[in-house]
């Protein structure tokens, strides 16, 4: 079940102090995690450590965007990344209460949704894989807290193809609306003038 990679989001630690004391107009870039959007029957994010977090754990977090809320698919990535960048006590307690908290060593993150196994009528074993079971989706409060954490701690770069769901759902505009510092890189055909 191959999919198509249509966007890459890079999350960097935001540091106001270094910007204020660095060269004029500096935009320090210390990438820590990437979110690669793979479009299949449902959009899927593969979040991996890179750059300053290259040896980080977990090695990979896979998140399916079920589209069961009114936010763009990138909101699910924001929830995961918020925890990977240290989160907040409120985010962690909400995630634990909602059953969405994951821990790997010292690092923790939140899955924006989780699918529970379905159970057969006659036995105590989970029903066969692929059965239709609605996932449990994080609360609106959890999404809002995750967006606040990312806006406070991260700078984001976005590279998305024009036909990507990230472009169609106006993910950059949504992130900026949540207060996130976003640099957007657009596709231009070879030999065409840059805009």
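Q: What amino acid sequence fits the structure above?
A:
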């Amino acid at each position: 079940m191959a999919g198509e990679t249509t966007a890459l989001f890079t999350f960097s630690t935001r540091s106001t102090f270094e910007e204020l004391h660095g060269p004029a107009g500096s935009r320090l870039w210390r990438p820590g995690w990437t979110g690669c959007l793979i479009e299949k029957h449902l959009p899927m994010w593969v979040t991996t450590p890179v750059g300053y977090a290259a040896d980080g754990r977990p090695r990979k977090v896979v998140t399916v965007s079920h589209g069961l809320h009114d936010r763009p698919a990138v909101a699910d990535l924001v929830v995961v990344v918020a925890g990977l960048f240290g989160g907040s006590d409120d985010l962690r307690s909400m995630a634990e209460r909602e059953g969405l908290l994951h821990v790997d060593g010292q690092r923790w993150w939140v899955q924006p949704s989780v699918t529970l196994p379905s159970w057969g009528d006659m036995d105590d074993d989970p029903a066969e894989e692929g059965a239709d079971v609605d996932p449990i989706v994080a609360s609106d409060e959890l999404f809002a807290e995750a967006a606040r954490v990312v806006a406070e701690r991260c700078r984001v770069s976005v590279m998305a193809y024009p036909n990507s769901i990230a472009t169609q759902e106006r993910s950059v505009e949504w992130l900026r609306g949540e207060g996130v510092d976003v640099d957007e890189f657009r596709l231009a055909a070879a030999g065409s003038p840059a805009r």
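Q: And what stands out in the fold?
A: The helical segments are 16-21, 74-84, 89-98, 140-153, 165-168, 171-177.
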